[in-house]
Structure formats: C-alpha cells, structure tokens
UniProtKB/TrEMBL annotation:
CDD domains according to UniProt: ASKHA_NBD_GspK-like (cd24082)
InterPro entries found in the cross-reference section: ATPase_BadF, ATPase_NBD, Euk-type_GlcNAc_Kinase
Coiled coil: none
Protein name: Glucosamine kinase
Pfam family membership, one: BcrAD_BadFG
Presence of the UniProt keyword Transmembrane in the record: no
Keyword tags: Kinase, Transferase
Species of origin: Thalassococcus halodurans
Length: 288
C-alpha cells in the first residue's frame, strides 16, 4: 500500500455537545464542526450526527469517500454492542468506533507512551504504552469520577456537614457554605436534585478558597490528590514516567502532587481530534 494512500483517511471526534471531523484526501484537508451526541444516552442521535459529518466532508471534497478508512472517537461508545451498532449505521466500508477517552489520551501524549489524568466535570485515568491504551474510571459521579469537578462539589457539601457535626476540622469557608445552603436540611435537599454538572459548579469555589489557604478546601483537594495518585498507581505509574494532567482542574491539582509526580509532568500536546487523526493514520496502515 502506497504512503499516499495511507494519508487518505477520515478522523471524527464526536462528544456529547460538538462533533469535529477531518478528511485528508489527495494532499488536501477538509474540516467539519457540528452538533454531537452521547452514544450511550442518545444512540440514534449520535449516529445522525456522524452521518451529517461524513456527508459534509463528502460535499466539501466533492469526492466519493465511502471506501476511505475512518476512525470515530465517540462519547458514550462504552462497549462492543454500541460500537458495532454505530459502525453499521455509517455509510462507510472501513470504519472503527471507539470510546472518546482513547483519542483524548493519544492526543494529549501525541501518540507517545505515558499516563493521563483527565480531570474535568468527570474524570478518568489512562496509560498509553506501545500504541495500546488502557483506561480506568469514567463511570460517572454515582460510581466513580474520583477527584473530578463533580466529586469536589459533592465533597464540599459533605465536608460542610461533617464540620458542623464536629467530625472534621471546621473552617470559615465550610461554615459559609453550610449557611449559604440553609443548614443541614438545605444541603440535603439541594444535593438530592443536583446533577454532576451542578456539583461541578462548586469546584471553582473550592480552588479559590484553596488559594486563600482555607483548611476545608485544602482537605478536599488533598483527598482528591490521593485518589489521583492511587489511580495512577493502579495503572502502573512509576516515578519518571511521563504524566499529563488534562481538563479544567489540572492546574488546581498540580501543586498537590508529590515531587516525583510534578517532575514527571508533561503538557498536553493535543486534543481529542488530534488523537483521532493519529488513530485514523494507524487504522489506515492496519496498526490500530
């Protein structure tokens, strides 16, 4: 197979909100951005979003792209059943679908070996070694998402209650939150209807209080650091292995990491679409 042919492929990164795609064909590059959808919660809609992306790339290029290799990074494509369903729904003869965390890891590390802690509203942890990615976590706030923004927000309300009960050290920030939510009953009532995104909205207040050296905020982020390091240890991270923190909480946690972990930090090189392009190239040459 010629190298020119290997450079002809489609890469798609479809998240829960946005879908981005790149077509490389005959030395030209075409890009698309449109609506996205999570395949786990909205399977039919995610398939529609992907078909829209493929149709738009075909229109832009004025070419028949049905036989080009296509790599799809898709939010919510968590198992083989969903992946196979999406693959069968697309008008392509050579397509592979994987969960979006794979491309996020490959993009952050630019295809190199290393470890990633993705710390946004949710969280997951991953290792890339020899072109193979293993990830853990990412199961949502009810079952996981350790050290994430949602986890921080929930921990804040829980710690505020514990401080009032005398079970953990009280702080000005924790007491402020306790009063703001209307005491015990107010916190319990609010928490009963809050989504992970709602909890995550509280995370910036914790990181701001941490900068002011509030002991309550310090305790939450210190606990989160412990969960991050445990997850990385579970994946086999050792001092000196490249470590990349991504997501909106990366900066907040960096100073909490132990010295050997801080010394191993590398900045993220790219995003999920960049990772999808790398994986599309591997798929084109049969090396995925």
């Amino acid at each position: 197979m010629s190298s020119d042919h290997l450079d002809q492929h489609i890469a798609i990164d479809c998240g829960g909100t946005n879908c981005r795609a790149v077509l490389r064909l005959d030395g030209r590059e075409f890009e698309y951005r449109g609506r996205g959808a999570n395949a786990f919660s909205h399977l039919d809609r995610s398939q529609e979003c992907l078909r829209e992306a493929i149709a738009a790339l075909a229109d832009q290029s004025d070419a028949d792209i049905r036989d080009l290799p296509c790599y799809v990074s898709l939010a919510g494509a968590i198992d083989a059943r969903i992946q196979a369903s999406v693959e069968a729904a697309l008008p392509l003869s050579r397509v592979v679908v994987q969960e979006d965390c794979m491309a996020a890891v490959v993009g952050a590390l630019d295809g190199a070996d290393g470890y990633v802690a993705a710390l946004g509203t949710g969280s997951f942890f991953a290792r890339s070694r020899g072109g193979q990615v293993r990830h853990i976590g990412g199961y949502g706030l009810t079952l996981g998402d350790e050290a994430s923004g949602a986890w921080i927000g929930r921990a804040l309300l829980a710690r505020a209650l514990m401080a009032e009960d005398g079970r953990t050290e009280q702080s000005a920030f924790l007491h402020e939150v306790f009063e703001e939510f209307g005491g015990r009953s107010g916190i319990i009532l609010a928490a009963s209807t809050m989504t992970p995104a709602d909890f995550a909205k509280l995370a910036p207040r914790v990181t701001d209080a941490d900068l002011a050296s509030d002991s309550g905020a310090l305790g939450i982020l210190s606990e989160g650091k412990g969960l991050i390091m445990q997850a990385l240890s579970d994946l086999g991270w050792q001092s000196g292995d490249a470590l990349c923190l991504t997501g909106g909480l990366a900066d907040a946690y960096e100073s909490y990491l132990p010295p050997d972990a801080r010394a191993s930090l590398v900045p993220p090189k790219g995003d999920g679409l960049a990772g999808a392009v790398i994986l599309a190239e591997r798929f084109a040459r049969g090396a995925l």
